[in-house]
Amino acid sequence: MLYGLRVGQARLSKSDAGVQERIRMKPLYITGTQKDVGKTTLSVGLSHKFRQKGLKVGYIKPLGQRVKEVGGQSLHDDALVISKILGDPSHTQAEIALALPRGRVEKQIFNMNSTELMEKIRGYCDVLKRDHDVVIIEGMGHVAMGSCVGVSGADVARIAGAKAILVTGGGIGKTIDEIALCSQFLVSNGADFLGTIINKVWPDKYDRISSATTQGLENLGIRSFGVVPYQEKLANPTMRQVLDRIGGELIGGEANLDNVVEKTIVAAMESRHMIGYLKRGTLVITPGDRTDNILAALSTNILSDMHETTMSGLLLTGGFRPDETCMRLINDSGLPTILTDGDTYSVGSQYFETVFKITPENDNKIQAAVDLMEQYVDIEAILASLDE
Fold first, then answer.
1. Could you read off the pLDDT of 104-154 as tens digits, one per residue?
2. What pTM was estimated for this model as a whole?
3. Residue 221: other Cβ atoms inside 10 A
């Protein structure tokens, strides 16, 4: 006879022989209607909450492009964020099953081995399922990504025996239409579709969008587990992330690379006009030979309140290294300064098109993601839906 705890508690059971066994739930597959809709943010929130309830949580991102070697394992960048919550990745995570660096897809298309890949993913998921109460499987991009190599998001959810949640961006008509399309892709490919979460809704439109989308999805027989407002804190990068994603040479301010960018300006105007745009946490993108703008930014930073630094950093373009006076002031100020070879337009465009994700070093972002998911997502309902 087994004595089990109900969903939401520690989920340990006790047998007559005195051996404790774990009551396992269906894995949860998190996918999106498109890329960068907040899948990792949801994974962070759910991982934290599930673990808080005493559940042993496993995690895998089976397909992805940003892979790092950690402790002998090949893990996706997003997996490293989950490690911060779950602890030792060697006990809570499985390696990425299929890394897709640039050029891999083209080669894979001419040498399709989707059956082998699917079995590899199934094997990794089975190991996690055997040792954990619940396993979170995070998809790559949107539901159809991976189809080019015969391993779509729907295929992964199906072979893992997981229930799938769709994450989508905020809106009304377009959002509901995308959910309808992507949910049909999941179902038609044999995945067990659970419901959806609408993310990144502009706060000033939240009430209207929340009401309309919830009703619109209900009209289609699709369950909504929450509507989450956009939070700027999760989108703001650190200067370390800017250096990592944009590239270039760090020529000053290494100690302050964790400065958070709250606002960005492209300073092509004269310095006297630029000063009016400098607010707390400003990143200034300007040519490296615009000495006037560099000095104005450094001066503003130095004159700011000692306890509230105005600037977050400088991103200098054109490959023009500042003169000796500027370099001395950059070093004295400690302001993170990155020198790039690209022209101002190209560098600025690259910066504004870049989506800066949560990283393991972003403690504040991780906590913000946890708080956001706990407040706006019905985690208890998701957990109950995973009960086998």
1. 677 777 776 778 888 888 888 888 888 889 999 998 888 888 888 788 899
2. 0.79
3. 7
Tokens standing for residue 206? 């939240």
What digits encode the pLDDT tens for the residues 322-379? 998 899 999 888 899 999 999 999 999 999 988 888 777 778 888 888 899 999 999 9
Query: Residues in the chain, how many?
Result: 388
For 34, the token pair is 């498109």
Do 67 and 74 touch, CB atoms closer than 8 A? yes
d(CA 211, CA 86): 34
Count Cα atoms within 13 angstroms, Cβ side, for 354.
20
Residues 66 and 76: beta-carbon distance below 8 Å: yes
**For the stretch 146-157, what's the b/e string if a residue is b when 16 or more beta carbons lie within 10 angstroms of its beta carbon?**
beebbbbbbbbb
What is the C-alpha separation between 145 and 9, in angstroms, rounded?
35
Would you say 257 and 240 are in contact if contact means Cβ atoms under 8 Å apart? yes
Residue whose entry in the numeric block shows the structure tokens 């998809």:
139
Cβ(13)–Cβ(3) under 8 Å? yes
Complete DSSP assignment for 300-327? HHHHS-TTS-SEEEEEEETT----HHHH
Which helix (H) or strand (E) segment is 352 a member of? helix 344-353
CA separation, residue 282 to residues 61, 212, 275, 279, 298 (Å): 34, 36, 11, 6, 12
Amino acid, res. 81: V
Sign of CA dihedral 221, 225, 226, 231: negative
| Alpha-carbon span 229 to 225, nearest angstrom | 14
